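EI: anyone free to look at a 574-residue chain?
SC: sure, send it
EI:
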Amino acid sequence: MLLFALVFFIAAGLCIYAVVRYLRHDRRPVILVFAVYMTAIGSWELLNFLIDAVTAEQLKLLGKNIVNAVSVPVTIYAIISFTFIYTDHKRWIRWVVLACAVHITCLSVALFVAPELLYESNGLVTQGPFTVAGFVFERFVVLDRTLKPAFLIYWLYTVLLESTAIALLVRYTLQNRQDVVRGQMSAVLVGISAPLFASALLFAGVVPPAWNPTDLSYIVTAVAFTLAVFRYRLFRLIPVGRQQLVRIMGDPVILIDDANRVVDSNPTARDLFGVGPNWQGIAASDFFTPLLDDVNRILDITAADTEISIAIGDTIHHFSLNISPIQNGGSVETGQLIVMRNITEQKDRQQKLEETTQELELSNEKLSRFAGMVSHDLRNPLNVISGRAELLRGEAPTEHVEPIVRSTERMDAMIEELLTLSKAGKSVEKSESIPLAGVAADSWGAVEDDTVSLELDIPEDVEVRADANRLQHIFENFFRNAGEHNDSPVTIRVGTLQGGEESISGFFVEDDGIGIPESDSTDIFEQGYTTHTDGTGFGLSIVEEIVTAHGWTVTVAESDMGGVRFNIDMTDPV
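SC: here you go
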């Protein structure tokens, strides 16, 4: 009875520890199943204590039946569930719970109807005193019972379930012998196997039934699981799914405890650092020894995410280091999990992208200089033609002079817009917070036309981050485009676009002109597209280039006024 009490208190303590851990922070199924397992063992031992304490035959038989109907199935199915979780077969847990419920219900009903289904009660007998290993046991009363075939079938069924659990653990150990914590696995195997081994000794006749070997074997189970939980960190370092996930990861993963010892790693990490088969438990500095220059950098890094480069042979490998502290139930750090994500290809692509960007910027710079040079060289003869045309006014027929003047003006506009276009697509490196209404008003002042009127519907306090000069180019091109492509008079309206939660997401420019045919709406931003005989075809393409350079988008639609509407959606309005 003292041994029953001892096992009960150990199992109860482990159960309370698991429940507290589960409720506080660690809500993994393995913690819950372990608590159920310890509860079943504790109830089993408590019932045995009470069975030995009472002296009535019917109470002893009732106690034995409760053990068989409730404690035994809960214990057996908890073992199966724990094993399935430990070996990453969690998909079967639901069926195990269902089988346990059916088992308890059916056997409880059967034993209620036929209390002597498993045993034939022959009354009470007195045994003792006797001495075992120097301990003297006084006289005690036990139930004299004869085991029936139903009990033998039941016993074989429980043996089959326990043997299945043990076989799964052994198989997992053999398949993952380089990854498992041997002490932890040994303790789990001993704890689960002890009752099965004791039952085998009982039925082999090695020990007498009066010793209750199966019941007393749970003291071995309790001690073994105490070691597994507190000495070998069963809840913190349970391998199973985590091991399998870590093992198949292509990135190096290393788990270091609070004493800076490597307690876990995957093959990728071991191959990277070239460690031998006896890596488990070695100092982290020894694990990283093949790359001495990088050891201190890896171990001393405190940032959660950082990047390092490691030279392996003639190749430089780049890794993004994610270091996660492992803590106990409080705030005490018990180790670190290091995940080294290989970003070598990403770095190579990034470097190639930067090189391409630099080449494009250099090409754009050359194009801008070329455009400036060409515009300068073109303007000189253009100025000569324009000047001579002015001298011809009154000397030559007007129908000959005016086409020359219009052509020179159009060429001058094309040269100006060519220069603007060469600069429009450059990324906006310097932006400032500027009032949207003020820029629109200034733009209108630069292109104001008596045949066109402007309605400005923008609050004075609305500001955007932009390049002021280029934003002004956008408005000027929209205003000029509305005046040139519509019959007068034309009304232009400028307003804001509403984003979420009453925020400003951009602005629009619309008019009451003739609009744009739907068939042409996809072509209007193409360079050279124009519906006006004197148009250059660069205006809206300049708008699109400037909008894109800011990271915004421009779309065209029909306005509420009957004409065309341009919407500028901005990514970072102020």
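EI: The two ends are 78 Å apart (CA to CA).
SC: 👍
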